[in-house]
Amino acid sequence: MKLYNELAEWWPLMQPPRRFKNEAARLARRLRNEDEESETRPTLLQLGSGGGHLASHLKEEFDMTLVDLSPRMLGLSRTLNPECRHLEGDMRTLRLDERFDAVLIFDAIAHIIELEDLQATLETARAHLRPGGRAIFCPDWTLETYEPGVSTGGSDSNGRGMRYIEWNQPWVEGTSCETDIAYLLRYENGDVRVEHDHIRIAVFPEETWRNALEEAGFTDVRIRQRTIRLHISARAA
């Protein structure tokens, strides 16, 4: 995907960190284990952490380890979150030989479109959770909630600007749908450039999620609609 590679420098204009504040607060409440008292800050592993915009709010409450496959996105996050640990890795195969109080995969889980890869990713999350630890996964949709449509956004900063239009196609094929994203990029000198991404986004049924989580070693699975994204939460058995 161009946005996570050659266009990564534009990510802060597409989704500025401030827009993640409320979502981070909702996630923090779900990720904390309020039944346990501890003198230390809880640890949180975020897989597919991207540019670190969500982490810029969550780090206020958690000691965070951020993992992403894109070196350019990690570079953005290191600038924004220098106090967090950053690691390059694939969330389908990562093994750190560590256990965390919580694991989070935000919108990156939407790019896992094959069942085999979803299972591997959930097993990675479980492998890094202590017993009883919580995990939250935030796909855009399940099959039951999928609605095609168009969204727009973007912002301006330091003389540059970005606007985008995201168009989710009205059909689901297998376990994914087609999505087109057009980017309008304005440089400091006024020049404008247009780029395009064509990607597939996961659309798994709820039953598939439940079965895959159970097979990976999770219990207490809950699926809730929260703002524009689902929160699929589970505990490590």
What share of the residues does DSSP label as strand, in percent? 35-45%
Strand arrangement across the biggest beta sheet: 3-2-1-4-5-11-10
Total beta strand runs: 11
What distance separates the N and C termini? 35 Å
CATH H-level homologous superfamily name of the largest domain: Vaccinia Virus protein VP39
Short overview:
With 237 residues, this protein is of the alpha/beta class. It is built from six helices and eleven strands. It folds into two domains: 174 residues, Rossmann fold (3-Layer(aba) Sandwich), CATH 3.40.50.150; 54 residues, S-adenosyl-L-methionine-dependent methyltransferases.
Polypeptide structure, described:
The protein has 6 helices and 11 strands. Helices cover 22% and strands 39% of the residues. The longest helix has 13 residues, at 115-127. The protein has helices spanning 11-14, 21-31, 55-58, 71-80, 115-127, 206-216, and strands at residues 43-47, 63-68, 85-88, 100-105, 129-137, 149-157, 160-173, 176-186, 192-202, 218-226, 229-236. The strands form 2 sheets. It has a 7-stranded mixed sheet, with helices on both faces. A 4-stranded antiparallel sheet has the order 6-7-8-9, with no helix packed on it. It folds into 2 domains: 2-142 and 204-236, Vaccinia Virus protein VP39 (Rossmann fold), CATH 3.40.50.150; 149-202, CAC2371-like domains (S-adenosyl-L-methionine-dependent methyltransferases, Single Sheet). 36% of the residues are buried. The protein is α/β, with parallel strands linked by helices. It is globular and about 55 Å long.
